[in-house]
Amino acid sequence: MGEAPPTSTHWLNRNIAAIATTSFFSDLSHETATAILPVFLASIGAAPSALGIIEGVADAISSFAKMGAGYWSDRLGIRKPIAVIGYLFTALGQASFGFATHWTHVLAGRTAGWFGRGIRGPVRDAIASESTEPQHYGKVFGFDRTLDTLGAILGPSTALALVAWTSYRNIFFLTFIPGLLAVLTVGFLVKAKKLPPNPTLSFRQSLRNLPPDFRFFLVGVGIFGAGDFAHTLLILRASQMLTPAHGPATAAKLAISLYLIHNIIYAAASYPVGYLADRFGKRRFLAAGYFISGLMCAGFLFPISHYYYLGILFALAGLFIAIEDALERAIAAELLPAEVRASGYGVLATINGVGDFVSSVVVGLLWAHVSTGAGFLYSGILSIIGAFMIARVRKSN
Hints:
Elements: H1 14-43, H2 48-76, H3 80-95, H4 103-129, H5 137-163, H6 168-174, H7 176-189, H8 203-208, H9 212-225, H10 232-246, H11 248-280, H12 282-299, H13 307-335, H14 341-369, H15 372-391
Helix pairs in contact: 1-3, 1-4, 1-5, 1-6, 1-7, 2-4, 2-14, 3-4, 3-7, 4-14, 5-11, 5-13, 9-14, 9-15, 10-11, 11-12, 11-13, 12-13, 12-15, 14-15
């Protein structure tokens, strides 16, 4: 477990390729399960509210597990064993849905799986940043997002193909295959540096040791995140806007096709964004990404229901998500010293998780009780403020 990571000067070394491949297999596994989860819950008699409870509890567990895992990784000086355990928990948690006879069984499996997802994230990102040079961070995390998103695109397609010839339960069991491949890839192909343990490091001290520049960066990320709602709401809004002209059934199909455009742009843009950011400035590109989010929100303030107009807005959404996911982690790698890198990634992930919760709740309430425009206006304003904050981030050393 204490192997030295690759020292090749080329950014796409064995470690980076293995980490990205792990992300692909893991996302293929859980997106396949997620695609059929709502209909499976209905088939065992669960109320629609059960899915919300399951996802809410699992996301909360995942968010706070990230912070704890990052701290313990820095305290113990280990990365890879935590990542292996995390990916194994995720694979087993999803496969366990096949045994469920009540929605609470799914809740238990999803919680276990998302706990694994939480503990693996910060250490995986720390390993990736410790396997290459700072001038390649954008490309590294962009490449990882590309393969991760390919898994997210193939997962629902795989579920759709499997539904035609086998049961929901068997599909859940089959998700263990790519889940296990993720475990084996990280276990046998990834080499992680074993850092000196720091047994006297307290959780509070690990937070105090985060550099001031990184804390300022977190403020910008947090402000933006408080308005960065789940993009499934875009599907709902597009469906509403298209229904008067096309009818509800066709509008729903068109809205789903728009979301596919969103995911394709996300996958296609992730690596080029990282490459360009390495050359021309990561903070500048991330600030631009947040600004693009503001433009997308502003676009939804206009009652224009043409499919191609909505396609542009969905493409902008996919582009800024590609920028956000690749460059937040790349900038964090530049700002964090090695001794608190996993802790910093854990805090970053937790802030993003809390932001996702706050944004979805606030936008949902504004949508329901004020207007859809109020929700998009709220998100757009926070996006612009976040862009301004990120543009001011500096690295003192």
